[in-house]
Amino acid sequence: MAGGSDRKRSAASAFGAHADAYRDSTVHREGDDLDRLAAWCSGADRAVDVATGAGHTAGALAAAGVDRVIAADAAPEMVATAAASFPRVEGVVADAERLPFADDAVDAAACRIAAHHFPDPVAFVAAVARVVKPGGTFAFEDNVAPEDPALDEFLNTVERRRDPTHVRSHTVADWIGWLEDAGFTVETTTVVTKTLDYTEWLGNVDASAERRRGVAAAFADPPTGAAEAFSITRGADGVESFANMKLLARATR
Ligand SMILES: C[S@@+](CC[C@H](N)C(=O)[O-])C[C@H]1O[C@@H](n2cnc3c(N)ncnc32)[C@H](O)[C@@H]1O
């Protein structure tokens, strides 16, 4: 894998080891966001779901009427799980930044809650723009950071301490700029805020005691404005919940 290859290999192997957990995870299996991305792609004959994980978005695209769905992921175990779990979904092991498809190969592409793991988001958006036909759709979703640099740094620090495969949550403005620079017209953007239970959020990645201490240390010394921006709630034992933001964007090539 080119471009940050050690980092990408270690992310793929970390994810590959948890393919079954991703297949069974409620967060990944359902949600209004999943329905919305699938609806945006529903008119396509052929679509690719980039960084498919256990294939829930690929499966939702197939269920929404897309004839042929390619589930692409850097982790071979995820690809195998996705292809085995959903009808009319075929799997391809692929780096999101170097998609192994011909130009204009698909009518639609989706990528749900994965791009914060990619070292080069500009290369990723360019790769998607290359494989989507003119007039085709890109249905995109990822975690985003606030515009304020100190709050952005805080969010990305806690995310990286919790999960070393986290590269960066970017801002809404970054994503819109990269999409437009790659030739997409951004038709719709929505930012949804979700409250995360702190203990569950750490448990989802099986964070070690050392990683938990690192996250707690960051939450113990937040920058000005973090409590309000992330709606941090605290109890006797420390942080109980906080809010994270996700961008959903529909773009046309
Ligand atoms: C949180 S999961 C994705 C969830 C999935 N899209 C869904 O809707 O359920 C993140 C996925 O990104 C994949 N991934 C990380 N870096 C990648 C890269 N550079 N290229 C392709 N896949 C990558 C991981 O292997 C993992 O399966």
Automatic annotation (TrEMBL):
Protein name per Swiss-Prot or TrEMBL: SAM-dependent methyltransferase
PANTHER family: 2-METHOXY-6-POLYPRENYL-1,4-BENZOQUINOL METHYLASE, MITOCHONDRIAL (PTHR43591:SF24), METHYLTRANSFERASE (PTHR43591)
Residue ranges of every copy of the Methyltransferase type domain listed in the record: 48-140
Organism superkingdom: Archaea
Species this protein is from: Halobellus salinus
Keyword annotations from UniProtKB, A to Z: Methyltransferase, Transferase
One Pfam family this sequence matches: Methyltransf_11
A biological-process GO annotation: methylation
Gene3D superfamilies from the UniProt entry: Vaccinia Virus protein VP39 (3.40.50.150)
One GO MF term: S-adenosylmethionine-dependent methyltransferase activity
